[in-house]
DNA sequence: CGCTCGTTTGATATATTTCAAGAATTGTGG
DNA sequence: CCACAATTCTTGAAATATATCAAACGAGCG
């Protein structure tokens, strides 16, 4: 395949292969999936709660997040996604979306028709297994967030989220584990950790004051990874990353 | 199949068929899966965090829950399972368990070797799709729990959990939507909704005092489903139940 | 350069936790 | 079947983490 290096779906190949090794044929089949590319602005919605999406959505660039809104108006972000993540496999396979997906920053996505996803998943078990893994790992991250929000206090909680980003950013080659740029406001951060933006602000300042992090606008630096991981009660096993078990 | 009515794996057939219709052949193939039956006491662990489980586990009777423990000792229950649920598909497929699974009450489980699960999932797409759905729906429930714990106050939160149980119990034919028995202590309930057992106690009493529920020991009666659903901000779509869309 | 959005700061309010002890219920061995 | 032990539930008072409200400050942007 002449375009095998620059092909947008290579991101998908890489992701799936990471979870479950693919043969060359599998890789080519994934690259041969039909898709349409779209450019989205920050704040644009990929899916609305209640929709019946017809496509799975692969993030090519930029960041996105899933969220729900409670009856009292409170918003809760349930996950944050970056380049290479497949959002909306859930929503499209389950038929009707049970949550919203919105772009955090401007970015590109690839839309792949559900039927094509379904077909390749079962005609090529390795591909299917990779997709299944992807959803299983997401489940694992959801569980950790439940623990994080449910049982950790503000400073540990925010610290934990910063650590998670750090590892995932590095795994996606979007930054180093100890330094990365995340285009998120404190209000959005608050909605992710179930705190108030005011309290998130105070918490970030305390993390900085205590020497755990440095920050300039949207850039986070974790000064001492080990110290931070201890404070943040962060054990990355739940991410199920197959990297050379650094850390 | 002479034993097709009493066969333990019928529970699995039913569950998978609910998510994605199975052919007769598929049903028989599921029933033909190898498995071992085990009886567990209340409090026994099905899997420990860090284990490398070799089996997927189907609950035949009794209740179980998944939990994690934070560094500060706080315990968080992430899901509660009943007859017909498949726990530990996650843990066994992902290789190393990222959370604990423990029996809430005494009960029976069927252990199915992972390889057999993996094989049937890809040799029989309808079965595989059903399993995938199962994990997707679980993901959806996790997301709702994140919202519940993150953005709802005590009374709404507890109410929401009671509503969820109500629907799931009825869907599993373990009780009526408005009345069911759940062998859970207030301490465990507290660990599920991320509150203190003391506060859960006060909250249950308030729910009772306000007329939303009645209770005798472990039996919960929801006096007026609609009123309760409104209070509890409960919209069951996230359960993705395929029942005749009651409610 | 002025506007808007995001961050920072302060004072006060409140939901939930913590600690502690008593009451009720369930389980158990004799 | 009773008596005792062990959980579980209930209640109260005090402590605290986080929310709320409101205003000032700063930075990026058209």
UniProtKB/TrEMBL annotation, chains A, B:
<dbReference type="InterPro" id="IPR036390">
    <property type="entry name" value="WH_DNA-bd_sf"/>
</dbReference>
<feature type="domain" description="HTH crp-type">
    <location>
        <begin position="152"/>
        <end position="226"/>
    </location>
</feature>
<dbReference type="Pfam" id="PF13545">
    <property type="entry name" value="HTH_Crp_2"/>
</dbReference>
<keyword id="KW-0238">DNA-binding</keyword>
<protein>
    <submittedName>
        <fullName>Crp/Fnr family transcriptional regulator</fullName>
    </submittedName>
</protein>
<keyword id="KW-0805">Transcription regulation</keyword>
<dbReference type="InterPro" id="IPR000595">
    <property type="entry name" value="cNMP-bd_dom"/>
</dbReference>
<dbReference type="InterPro" id="IPR014710">
    <property type="entry name" value="RmlC-like_jellyroll"/>
</dbReference>
<keyword id="KW-0804">Transcription</keyword>
<dbReference type="InterPro" id="IPR012318">
    <property type="entry name" value="HTH_CRP"/>
</dbReference>
<dbReference type="Pfam" id="PF00027">
    <property type="entry name" value="cNMP_binding"/>
</dbReference>
<dbReference type="InterPro" id="IPR018490">
    <property type="entry name" value="cNMP-bd_dom_sf"/>
</dbReference>
<dbReference type="InterPro" id="IPR036388">
    <property type="entry name" value="WH-like_DNA-bd_sf"/>
</dbReference>
